[in-house]
Amino acid sequence: MTHDCSFLEELPLADDQFSFAEGRRESHAADWGAQQKGEGVVPDAVVWPASTDDVSAVLAAATEHDVPVTPYAAGTALEGHAVPAHGGISLDLTRMDAVVDYRPDDFQIDVEPGVLGADVDDYVGGDGLFFPPLPSSGDISTVGGMIATDASGMKTVRYGEVADWVLGLEAVLADGTVVQTGSRAKKTSSGYNLTDLVVGSEGTLAVVTEATLELAGRPQQIRGGRAIFDTLEDASDAVFDAIRTDLDVARIELVDGLSARAANEYLGTDLPDAPMVFLEFHANHGVEEEIALCESIFEDHGVARFEMSGDDAEMDRLWRARRELAYAIQSYDPDLEPLHPGDVTVPISEYPAMVREAKALADEYDLPVPCFGHAGDGNLHYSVLVDMDDPEEVERGEEVYSLLLERALEYGGTVTGEHGIGQGKRGYLEDEHGTGAVEAMRAIKRALDPTDTLNPGKIFPETVEGERVRDA
Amino acid sequence: MTHDCSFLEELPLADDQFSFAEGRRESHAADWGAQQKGEGVVPDAVVWPASTDDVSAVLAAATEHDVPVTPYAAGTALEGHAVPAHGGISLDLTRMDAVVDYRPDDFQIDVEPGVLGADVDDYVGGDGLFFPPLPSSGDISTVGGMIATDASGMKTVRYGEVADWVLGLEAVLADGTVVQTGSRAKKTSSGYNLTDLVVGSEGTLAVVTEATLELAGRPQQIRGGRAIFDTLEDASDAVFDAIRTDLDVARIELVDGLSARAANEYLGTDLPDAPMVFLEFHANHGVEEEIALCESIFEDHGVARFEMSGDDAEMDRLWRARRELAYAIQSYDPDLEPLHPGDVTVPISEYPAMVREAKALADEYDLPVPCFGHAGDGNLHYSVLVDMDDPEEVERGEEVYSLLLERALEYGGTVTGEHGIGQGKRGYLEDEHGTGAVEAMRAIKRALDPTDTLNPGKIFPETVEGERVRDA
Predict the structure, then answer these.
(1) Residue B231: alpha-carbon gap to chain centroid
(2) Looking at the domain assignment, is residue A118 inside a domain?
(3) The FAD-binding PCMH-type domain covers which part of the protein (chains A, B) (predicted)?
């Protein structure tokens, strides 16, 4: 799968905008997900475009020379999105990191794809604005990456996902055509919604070169804290009850007892190793009433401790276990590693059952499976911890992983709430959507990228090893 | 453009499910927009499917026989969407009007496309739920139609548009393939977002046979009323100021002095013929604080009267002029008719300029142009009133109409906020989106409907009279 990329030398790119050097190429072989699995494919070249014109020139030439192009930014994806699976060019967008325009009166900002999510918040914070769907990884992941997977985060339960906050895009198609999607008007019904088609398409339909994001006004009242429960059943039932009661909550995160134990050990805290629900309330009026409503619902489910605060430092302390959870789980047992960490999401009414099922699978297969998630969305992040040197244990872990995804579909949910399909979950796409819908997706891919130049080997299941959409 | 539809007799349809009778066909020749213009095309047959299987069988056979199919429901569209422009079959979905499933704990309902929007609210109201993006025509227009144009309404300023509340669809492609889009999970990043591609595609990509709608909980506090201003400038500036201040308002409707006069005459009321802003506030807490904030902002812009109430009957009275506005404008002058009534939408910061421009055009061309709209979204509905028997006046009216749409684009807006492109605004699609984006839309259309069976003659500009997308 080696591709001759010498045509790059003919393009109007500066010397420091492309490289065939081994070191540069190797650093673009994988994203987090692939790295964890020891997987990755070294691209034949790396290109750092500085403008939409650069992106257009590279894509047009790559399509002409039948060379695959895989967009790359922060490399924080979990499902191998940034792996140049069929070789070719890794298109590194991190140098396109400008704020192009900012219109606070319209709650709008235009940014290039390489801008870090948290930098958007920093940029607009002085005007009392923020970008609500920022994922937990917002300080290290880019706007382009968030758009690629239609990311979401803790505040999605109140504010929605990335797609809800992208008003329009400038994007480049495989043949180099630059398209503008959407409108600066808040509402349009003009033509097909290309914006929401490109959002979440994981770099397989177009390369985003500019995004018009909507912003929200920061609430006047913010309170947060945590609740501790005796059992996971109580905690998940309480979340379901809160959501069905239409509680106005801005973050509602479930953490199971095993994760709590990991956090206690990692942080040296002496909280009970018990299920917790972390909460944050946003409002301009009546935040205390919502907290009181939440407490009374949680009491119906036997909450053991319910601690809220309006003080920043105290909120920070109460949230610490949740904030450090990813690191805590990673260091839980040095001999164990998380197998395919990711998330599923189910309708909220099925959330308690999904959580129960995850723990039952952990018991049945005798593996630690710490679970946590954006519970208010019905979201569950799992980590099946296995000894990677023990093939039998890895195999058991793989079974647990598959069964988790299958259960999510049985409950009417999705195999990926916010991390995309990438390479990792391609085998589940048809299980989730059926043949008809997947064939329609393939038809769209072929229509916009007939040569399968853009990020081949992602999203679509391959029926034959190494097959690309254009061959299917 | 007559098509032989005798193949319908071979399909598994009951006798009352299809008709070649002239009366039935003629009643399916136009929608409101086409009727107003005295336009329309009589289909060769009308079919009333009762199930997804019926729709699939009809579409598969129609595609095989190269017969166009135009979906029809309530026929309330403004832009000729339901006109079978190239003849063939009018597919009347009004008999598919069942509520298929209702899951109040998940805030979800599955309905067939022929269900009236207001019937959804009636169905779920007992549980304290409602369907927020319901357009003003909700009591006479169907869910299928709202999905076709990605409709919106007065409450969109707070709750968003139809697309924001459609979680998934069952839809039939031109070749009869039934696809399921989306997920019952609130959040998914699995595969391409086919749901939001079909929403707003005006029946050109697929026929929706079932929709999973999300519902919201009814707010505990509702207050509403109206504000009266001396000048339209003050009124539109006040709206802009309220929105940029992040006022939490659920409806904020601007009505110009001319429309107010029409309403006064129609209703026999003695309000001043002055610009008005109609408001409704929804909250669980602090609704009075938001009203106070609004009043203080409006006072900065010289509001003359500010009347709010929490009493249903009084709110009803205060809102009466806005509620009856469409009828009032229609009966404003029996010699005049509205030419191409519809809407444009611009960024809120440009709203005062757009409103000023509309009135300036009315003055310049010496025509009455009553304007009103969902001001908080930057939305402006216009009616250019002309004597249809006076060709010179009609021509002046056409110029005003064109200039209004062009101005909206110059302000960074859209030529259609909520009524779609249909037949009427096809000439503006490329002006708004550019050639690249329109060509991408065409490619998607060809990929999913290569024979151009579904609603030909809509959305896409024809380069040659009578040309279809497949020929372009």
Answers:
(1) 29
(2) yes
(3) 39-218
Q: Which residues of A touch B217 (CB under 8 A)?
A: 246
Number of domains, chain B: 5
CB contact under 8 A, B105 and A205: no
| Residues of chain A falling short of pLDDT 50 | none
The CATH number of whichever domain residue A18 belongs to comes to 3.30.43.10
> Same domain for B113 and B86?
no
The whole-angstrom distance between B16's CA and the closest CA on chain A is 30
Q: Of A92, A123, A156, which one is at a domain's C-terminal end?
A: A92
- Predicted confidence at residue B464, as pLDDT, reads 63
Statement: residue B228 has pLDDT above 90: yes
Is the minimum CB–CB distance between B454 and chain A shorter than 8 Å?
no
Is residue A124 in some structural domain?
Answer: yes
The answer, for A451 touching chain B at a CB cutoff of 8 Å, is no
Task: Identify whether the C-beta of residue B261 lies closer than 8 Å to the C-beta of residue B273.
Answer: yes
CATH number of the structural domain spanning residue B397: 3.30.70.2740
CB atoms near residue B66 (< 10 Å): 12
What SS3 class is residue B94? coil
Residues A44 and A127 in one domain: no
pLDDT on residue B472: 65
How far does B314 lie from chain A, in Å, by closest CA?
Answer: 25
Q: Give the pLDDT confidence score for residue B467 in this predicted structure.
A: 74
User: Sorting pLDDT into bands at 50, 70 and 90, what band is B37?
Assistant: confident
Q: Determine whether the interchain pair A348/B285 forms a contact, defined as Cβ–Cβ distance below 8 Å.
A: no
CB-based contact, A333 to chain B, within 8 Å = no
Q: Tell me, yes or no, whether B417 lies in a domain.
A: no
Confidence bin at B465 (pLDDT 50/70/90): low
The answer to whether position B282 is within a domain reads: yes
Q: Average model confidence (pLDDT) for chain B?
A: 96
Pair (A264, A136) in one structural domain: no
* In chain B, % of residues over pLDDT 70: 99
Window 263-282 of B: residues touching A by CB (8 A cutoff) are none
Write down the pLDDT at residue B463.
66
Rounded to whole angstroms, what are the CA distances from B467 to B174, B443, B447, B460, B470? 19, 16, 18, 10, 8
Q: Does A164 lie in the same domain as A254?
A: no
Contact between residue A378 and residue A413 where contact means Cβ atoms under 8 Å apart? yes
Per DSSP, the residues of B313-331 read HHHHHHTHHHHTHHHHHHT
Q: With CB atoms and an 8 Å threshold, state whether B173 touches A200.
A: no
Last residue of a domain, one of A422, A437, A457: A422
- B156 and A444 within 8 Å at the Cβ level: the answer is no
| Cβ contacts of A284 on chain B, cutoff 8 Å | 248, 286, 289-290
Among A161, A173, A439, the residue with its CB nearest the CB of B187 is: A161
Q: Are residues A317 and A168 in the same domain?
A: no
Contact of B443 with chain A, judged by CB distance below 8 Å, is answered with yes
A192 touches chain B (CB under 8 A): yes
**How far does B216 lie from chain A, in Å, by closest CA?**
8
Residue A456 shares a structural domain with residue A319: no
Residues of A within 8 A of B348 (CB-CB) are: 105-106, 186
Count the Cβ atoms, other than its own, within 10 Å of residue A143: 31
Alpha-carbon distance A460 to B106, whole Å? 30
Distances from the Cα of A33 to the Cα of A83, A244, A422, B228, angstroms: 10, 34, 10, 59
CATH number reported for the structural domain that contains residue A308 in this entry: 3.40.462.10
In this structure, the answer to whether residues B114 and B208 fall within a common structural domain is yes
| End-to-end alpha carbon distance in chain B | 18
What ipTM goes with this model?
0.97
Look at A196 and B200 and tell me if their CB atoms are within 8 Å. no
CB atoms within 10 A of CB A310: 15
Domain that holds residue A453: 426-471
Average of per-residue pLDDT across B221-238: 98
Given B161, B180, B416, which is nearest A190 (Cβ)?
Answer: B416
- At residue A217, the pLDDT reads 97
Residue among A108, A192, A413 whose CB faces B183 most closely: A413
Side-chain-facing half-sphere of A124: CA atoms under 13 Å? 26
Tell me, yes or no, whether A363 and A277 share the same domain. Answer: yes
